[in-house]
Task: structure prediction
Amino acid sequence: MAQTGARLTGLTAYRGRPLLHFADGRTTPADIVVLADGRASTGRKILDPYRRLRYAGYIGHRGTVAYNPTNMVDFWRLEPSPGVQFNIAPIPGGVDWTLYLNATTVEYTNMFGSTPHRRLFAQPRHVTDAARAHVDGQALWHLPEPCATAVHCTTTRSAFPVMDIDPPIQMVWPVGDGFAVLLGDALAPGPGAHRPRCAPS
Result:
């Protein structure tokens, strides 16, 4: 039985079966527990507490703009200087871009209203004027003019702190006579989990 909209706080064994504990005081028994609760996984904190996310010191700023600045037909990846990477790809009616820029924890917090560990994805409503101005300035400084203009003309933006984590050594844990399983980003966080390595295209 899927449990959605409830905050998991613990996992124990009761009469040989896994028992889930929720913030509202409820408990639910199960034969097998599958935890696919994302990058900030509570399941990972319970089952694999020593494998923690670490902020890698830079941010992926993202946006989509409804025009194609160079009529590109393929994915482009630029690395104009150390610590700066720009990915841009055509989509129907425009382009999607990601600009990776170094930032301290304090700088991330000032731009998006919370620390990288608490805000693992900055939605458009979290993007401050300061964050927008910073990205526009860095794009103007580092990118070719058509790409910088595409960034500047993007009205709706998001961002994510790039996080590192040790690779998993297991994905299934015995709980009583049953099992608990981590899947997806709960097991091995995907987007932004590893530092991009590339050369200019």
Q: What stands out?
A: Residues 59 and 71 are 27 Å apart (CA to CA).
